[in-house]
Backbone:
């Protein structure tokens, strides 16, 4: 499915729904497609993206479009990350915070003082946030970030 076809399909689905959760999924997908349209993609990259977008075709007549499109959107984000090294905005920040909190829990329990766990989680989250944000800024400088929110 061509980028323009997928864009038109999602725009059509967006106009037919009033559910906020569906609207958010469609808008996010549309923002990613818009970001891809504005990039200088090679023919090979464009063909692989269009092949990946072929998964949208069966969704047109599906009963639970939201569920299927959310799954396709998540797999599309993974595809963009693995094959084209493109990440969505805030990708590394989210990972950094989760890893920081995980290590914070481990360090906090090792300290074994009454507030050690709370301090460990907080400090770990802050360190993870800083590291993740720096990685997001680096990816943005390298033009590897795709926006998922429209203005």
Residues:
């Amino acid at each position: 499915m061509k980028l323009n076809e997928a864009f038109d399909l999602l725009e059509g689905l967006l106009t037919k729904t009033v559910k906020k959760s569906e609207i958010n999924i469609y808008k996010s997908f549309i923002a990613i497609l818009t970001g891809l349209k504005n990039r200088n993609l090679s023919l090979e990259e464009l063909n692989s993206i269009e092949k990946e977008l072929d998964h949208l075709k069966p969704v047109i007549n599906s009963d639970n479009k939201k569920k299927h499109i959310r799954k396709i959107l998540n797999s599309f984000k993974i595809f963009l990350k693995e094959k084209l090294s493109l990440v969505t905005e805030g990708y590394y920040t989210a990972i950094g915070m989760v890893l920081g909190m995980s290590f914070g829990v481990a360090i906090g329990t090792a300290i074994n003082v009454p507030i050690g766990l709370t301090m460990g989680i907080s400090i770990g989250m802050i360190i993870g946030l800083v590291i993740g944000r720096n990685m997001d800024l680096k990816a943005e400088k390298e033009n590897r970030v795709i926006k998922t929110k429209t203005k």
